Amino acid sequence: MLSVDAFNDFCRSLPATNYVVQWGGSHVWKVDTKVFAIGGWNEGEYPAVTFKVSDLAYEILRDAPGLRPAPYLASRGMKWIQCFEEPGLTDDELKDHIAESHRLASLNLTKKRQKELGLNQD
Question: Could you say which DSSP state residue 70 is in?
Fold first, then answer.
């Protein structure tokens, strides 16, 4: 599982990101103003990394070992998954899901703001 430093370094490498520590010490990453990843590290416990997913990915991942619908977010109808125990995801798989979460969150910005930030211009 990604260390706190590896998680933060990866999220920081994505475009137009902001970082805050909130919600009881969680590492919260946003693309502009939209949350795309939340990391929590408790002493001696497996870290919990939460990310936004597509409808299809949600259906596939929600019952996978080490993954679950994200507490609080999923109960409100949002498609978020939390990797919280082994076996979970490999580091590369987790990074892929975080990058996709960044893209999905950025699509919730206005077209004007996306253009200003150089996002989704393909």
Answer: P
Q: What angle do CA 98, 100, 102 make, to 5 degrees?
A: 70
Which letter does DSSP use for residue 54 in this model? -
Burial string for 32-68 (b: 16+ CB within 10 Å, else e) reads bebbbbbbbbeeeeebbbbbbbeeebbeebbeeeebb
The model's pLDDT over 25-72, given as tens digits with 9 standing for 90+, comes to 899 999 999 999 999 977 667 789 999 999 999 999 999 999 999 988
Domains of the chain by residue range: 4-111
At the topology level of CATH, where does 4-111 sit? Aspartate Aminotransferase, domain 1 (3.90.1150)
Strand order in the sheet with 67-69: 17-22, 26-31, 34-40, 48-52, 80-83, 67-69
Nearest CA to 48 among 104, 8, 4, 96? 4
Q: What is the 3-state secondary structure (H, E, C) of 39-53?
A: EECCCCCCCEEEEEC
